[in-house]
Each structure stands twice: as structure tokens, then as C-alpha cells.
Amino acid sequence: MTLTVATFYRFVPLDDLPSLQPALQAACVENGLRGTILIASEGINGTLAGPADGIEAMLGDLDERCGVRSGEVKLSQAEEWPFARLKIRIRPEIITMRAPEADPAVLAGTYVEPADWNALLADPDVLLLDTRNRYETKVGTFAGAVDPGLDNFTDFKAFVESALDPALHTKVAMFCTGGIRCEKASAFMRAKGFPEVFHLKGGILQYLEDVPEADSRWQGECYVFDGRVAVGHGLAPTGWTACFGCGNPLSPEDLRAPEYEPGVSCPACIDDLTPEKAASLRERQRQMLAS
Known about the structure:
This protein folds into three domains: 3-90, Alpha-Beta Plaits (2-Layer Sandwich); 110-220, Oxidized Rhodanese, domain 1; 249-290, no CATH class. It is built from eight helices and 15 strands. It has helices at 17-30, 52-66, 114-121, 134-137, 155-163, 180-191, 203-210, 275-290; strands spanning 3-11, 34-40, 43-50, 72-78, 86-90, 110-112, 127-130, 140-142, 171-175, 196-200, 218-220, 222-223, 230-231, 241-242, 249-250. The strands form five sheets. Strands 4-1-3-2-5 form a five-stranded mixed beta sheet, covered by helices on one side. A four-stranded parallel beta sheet has the order 6-10-9-7. Helix 1 (17-30) runs antiparallel to helix 2. The protein is globular.
């Protein structure tokens, strides 16, 4: 079974969210889709999986409702369901930053197409920032990128204010998985006085789809927020999996580590694992294997 996976977002004013939520739920169910959609007054953000015709119909519905095709839409494939269920949620923000000044509709950075990204990175005056969380950067990143060591995207604000200076860092390029975090991160930096801020249009996923592997500056794979865990060039799924205990992405090498126990622990969470939680996870694992 080959499923189509659609990742999309658009910053666009939305109203009457309590009515929009059940309408989107019904449309997804009708088209046989699973995944997550977040809606807020500032826009829509989601990833859905299902049959190709169902995805196409849903994108048409979303385009009529909120012009989603005027934002970012990326399609890929999966051989198994990357989501177990469907969730439509109303949120204060479609990507949480808690920075009112970070408004992409008012003050955004400059888009850079994937085909032009390598040339920008060749500029020695450019500071390259990875705006993702540390568990994502572990899976892969661009050569030469600065990893701020974020545990949450909201931590990006403190990193900028403590580690960067608009007078010194006059040309900044940033990237994220699909582009949405960079929309807000670039707007935040522009609001803080950074003169030139660039971000990769369509994010890492678009770069991996468009740029030939032989020309790529990407190192490793790209973490994704679904059951595939990570994808590589051409958006093909890779050998990464995830720890059930903590959700941390696990490489084939991690699976061979002594701290790894299927369904229970991995090197990232073993030190925080209490005997009670370990017993609970082992019982769950036993029940799953017995079913």
C-alpha cells in the first residue's frame, strides 16, 4: 500500500474556528485521511496521509477555505500509515513562539529557493542557523550550521537575544523542516533589528526533493513528525526509528546501544527512567507482543 503524505501551512487570518474545526474533521474522514491539522487565528498547519485521491480532494477543500496552495504544500509517499489517527486542534498559534512581534505578515525574512541555497551558503559573511530542536538536529543538518541547542522553539528568542548581535551578524540564513518555523524566526529577528535575514523556501524537505544528492550540502537525514521518523534525499524514508519511552529519534547505531530496550528506553532517556515507569513500559511491550 502506497500512501500520499501532504505537509502544508499558510499564515492567513482565519475566523470562526469552532465551526471550521468540525468541518475539517468531517472532510478528512470522508476522504479517508489520518494526521494532524492545527488551526489558529493566524493560519493553518498540518500533515495528512491517505490515498492520493483523498489527499488531492482535501487539498482542494483547504484551498477553497483558506488558500492553502498559496502557502507551502509538499507531497511525499509512505508505505505504511505514518499516523494512527486524525486530530484537528484549535491553538493560539500554528507554531508556538509567544512573540507577538514575530508576525510574518508584517515583517518577514527573504525567501531563498532551494536551487539558490548553496550559493547563499557559500558567502563567508552568512551566519547559518538551524532553528529546529536538538533532537531534530541530531538526525541531520546543513554543513556549517550553528545549532542553538533548543529544547523548544520558544527558546529561539533567548538564543537570539543572548548570542547574536544585529551589528555583528548582518546577514543571517536560517532553515527548518518545512519552512514554518523560519517564517516566525525571521520575523522575530527582523523585529530585533537584524538587517538581512534569509530563509529556505519550503524548508529542508523541499531542498531534499529539489537538489540532487551529488550537489547537496545536507548531511544526514531529516527528522519528520510522523511514523517515518526521518527521510533522506528524494524524501525516501530511512532507517531511523523512535524510542517509545521518550520519543527520541534512534539511529541504527542507537538500537545497538546497551541502554536501548525495545518499547522501554534508549540512550537519551535511560538516566531519567524510574523503576515504576520501566515496569509499566515493559508490561505494555509484553502486551503488544502477545497481541
